[in-house]
Amino acid sequence: MIDESRVLPPGIAADVALSEVRQLRAGDRPTHGGQLFAYVYDPAVPGLDELAAAAHRESAHVNGLDPTAFPSLLAMENALVGAAGRVLGAGPGTTAPDVVGSVTSGGTESLILAVKTARDAHPEIAAPRIVVPSTAHAAFAKAAHYLRVALDVVPVSPDRLRPDPSAMAAAIRPETVLVACSAPSYAHGVVDPVAEIAAAAAAAGVRCHVDACFGGWTLPYLRRLGEPVPAFDFAVPGVTSISVDLHKYAYAPKGVSVLLHRDARLRAPQYFAYADWPGYTMINPVIASTRSGGPIAAAYATLRHLGDDGYLRLADVTRDAVAGLADAVRAVDGLRLMAEPESTVVCFTATEGGPDLFVLVDELTARGWHTQPQLSYAGLPASVHLTVTASVAPRVAEFGPDLADAVAAARAAGPVALPPELVALATSLTPDALTPELVAGLAGGLGLGGGDAPTDRMAVVNTLLDAAPPALRERLLVEFVGLLQRPTW
Length: 489
Ligand SMILES: Cc1ncc(COP(=O)(O)O)c(C=O)c1O
Description:
By secondary structure, this protein is of the alpha/beta class. The protein has 16 helices and 13 strands. It has helices at residues 14-25, 48-59, 71-87, 107-120, 139-147, 165-171, 194-203, 219-224, 264-267, 294-330, 357-366, 396-413, 420-428, 436-445, 459-467, 470-484, and strands spanning 100-104, 129-133, 150-154, 176-182, 207-211, 241-245, 257-261, 272-274, 282-284, 335-337, 345-350, 372-374, 383-387. It has a seven-stranded mixed beta sheet, with helices on both faces. Strand 10 and strand 11 form a beta hairpin. It is globular and about 60 Å long. The two termini are 20 Å apart. Pyridoxal-5'-phosphate (PLP) is lined by residues 106-108, 111, 137, 139, 182, 186, 211, 213-214, 245, 257. Residues 106-108, 111, 137, 139, 182, 186, 211, 213-214, 245, 257 line the site of pyridoxal-5'-phosphate.
């Protein structure tokens, strides 16, 4: 007798299976339509999704594990690396003719590999360290954690939002294997002083990585459109590696980033090779070994279809959208831009006496605008982040009135008032006092304990998280995500 609870349900028709996926997808944030300002990058180019999906399907079962078995994948990967190099100041006739690179699964993998490569270039350094500004993407902290590399974080001031190059230089120690900076930073969209930082790194004989995951595909086009984009790519002496995500502003479907090194010697420690077992000799340039050809083929087709003219036009459209959104923020009393836009981010905060930002985010959600709240951190105020893509352009005129309306509603609702004992708890707890029971209790008290996806009203949760130090934020959210990640039987 078969125990039904021990076996999978019987197969269903293909169209029924697909309709299940579609039903599940219906509960998601809208990936198209220009109203989601994080997570997705939508150029709103007719037919592009279909092209990418068809290319993905062609290569989904191809395995990047062995480039000799599937030369198509090697050719497409080399073409993507070449394209990224061209966009970022490398290639024949430039000061960086020998740039090489790899396709990875995303920005985080590119950054982990940049740190691994720098670390493994110095086996003689027993306790390697990296220097990053506090605005560097969290993936550097993840890399440091995974790779047991110490993280030296250089603070940024609230007015500049980018590191002082002399502070970066001063943080370099004999054990430093990598200095990193952003072009631009995710949170505020500002470009770090790459030339000065790279010069300081070079003077110390240390590698310098430019994290252009977010903006590496738009900044060069914005410059061509006349924007004052500072030098940040391989044209800058001392820059040894750059990462750029094709699944962001190259508008490829998820799963593709490129990590470039100035030359093959610098790249060499990136490879992992292992022949000491009875199976095939494993030679991996990236973290994954088996790699689907799907994302690479989709990115390849996307790049070929959009081309230089397409990206230039999309950057132009996006630039107009950024300007329109920034104007909308400037026009509302009680808000101010964190920084004048330098790329494709609009980031704003509340002025003294302005609306409660977390209530405002909920009010915007209620009006169909999905923005990203950012908690206060080390002297920087809480803020609202908008990643702007070309799809936003046709919606910009609607945003201003909705923003004004949402601000009025947030003012009328007033700020979130947490019970004082909860604030006291959030501010006084030390990481060691955070027992799983206490964290679960706190999460439960905030309505985060039931294992359900969060509602659209998150102001109370964000206010508590904002009052808590980073270690408590991390613990609370890990607990919460852990509650969400439960098998459905
Ligand atoms: C500047 C920067 N670096 C790295 C990353 C990490 O990229 P991913 O989410 O693809 O791992 C991001 C993501 O937004 C980013 O903006």
